């Protein structure tokens, strides 16, 4: 069974945790294992979102539209709506990155939400959107939300969000403020964030520490999300009272294996503890028994978070 705690100013954990092994971002230690994109000639196959936590009888579990790699040829993608477009480019302050906007069939006559999903190191969720990203798009669409998957402007061999955190955060927040919110009919009260591994680190160290006014419907840190030294900006009473902040990590994701050397458990515990101590009232920490860095129920996590924020 998972161990779960809600923010009450005294967050603790009883699952297997090695707190002394928690990573500090400033050390430059690798935050997640390498993840490489698929070769461009690989073709998409059927996707079952039960792999990512949806129930077999959930109509979203077998999405009819699988997002493939055709964007490499410059094509656009939209599962059922008119707003999707793959591999758009955004320049800001000397940095250049790309992003997908995935429309799974939103109704623009109703308020349209936005889900920002930050990839892990290596950017596989961006480069190969046929698996996890397809399922997250199906979940977002069921809540009448667009899914945006940006690729960090980091040009290194193993692209990360965290190695140039300040610059990448500036690029990312400009992308949302100056591009996404200007080009698409987004309800600013319905902006959800989700980050995996290195993307969770960008959320906890970067977005939640400062420009959290862009997080209006909660954030989920999956497989990581450590503690910053301090908040860059003071949180409002409303943010502290009602912003869902979830840290969800596999209990076995403790950095003890060669394939997953990042201790995501310690990072998640430290991150949740920090925001709880800062006074945020809707902090949840969950360690999933039997799960590691590579088998998290991401689609269910997003669905649960969006349901929670809508209540």
UniProtKB/TrEMBL annotation:
<protein>
    <recommendedName>
        <fullName>Polyhydroxybutyrate depolymerase</fullName>
    </recommendedName>
</protein>
<dbReference type="InterPro" id="IPR029058">
    <property type="entry name" value="AB_hydrolase_fold"/>
</dbReference>
């Amino acid at each position: 069974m998972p161990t779960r705690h809600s923010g009450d100013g005294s967050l603790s954990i009883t699952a297997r945790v090695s707190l002394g092994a928690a990573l500090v971002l400033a050390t430059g230690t690798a935050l997640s294992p390498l993840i490489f994109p698929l070769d461009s000639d690989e073709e998409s196959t059927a996707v079952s979102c039960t792999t990512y936590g949806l129930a077999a009888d959930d109509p979203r579990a077998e999405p009819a539209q699988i997002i493939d790699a055709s964007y490499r040829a410059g094509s656009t993608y939209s599962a059922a709506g008119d707003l999707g477009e793959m591999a758009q480019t955004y320049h800001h302050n000397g940095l250049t990155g790309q992003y997908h906007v995935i429309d799974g069939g939103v109704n623009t006559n109703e308020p349209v939400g936005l889900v920002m999903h930050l990839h892990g190191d290596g950017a596989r969720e961006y480069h190969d959107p046929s698996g996890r990203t397809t399922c997250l798009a199906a979940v977002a669409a069921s809540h009448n939300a667009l899914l945006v998957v940006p690729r960090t402007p980091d040009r290194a061999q193993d692209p990360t969000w965290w190695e140039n955190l300040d610059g990448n955060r500036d690029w990312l927040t400009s992308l949302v403020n100056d591009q996404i919110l200007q080009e698409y009919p987004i309800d600013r009260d319905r902006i959800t964030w989700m980050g995996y591994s290195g993307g969770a680190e960008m959320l906890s160290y970067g977005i939640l520490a400062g420009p959290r006014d862009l997080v209006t419907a909660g954030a989920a840190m999956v497989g990581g999300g450590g503690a910053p030294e301090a908040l860059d900006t003071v949180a409002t009473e409303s943010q502290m009272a009602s912003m869902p902040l979830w840290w969800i990590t596999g209990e076995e994701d403790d950095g003890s294996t060669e394939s997953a050397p990042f201790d995501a458990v310690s990072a998640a515990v430290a991150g949740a503890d920090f925001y709880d101590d800062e006074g945020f009232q809707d902090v949840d920490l969950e360690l999933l028994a039997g799960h590691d860095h590579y088998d998290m129920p991401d689609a269910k996590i997003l669905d649960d978070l969006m349901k929670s924020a809508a209540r």
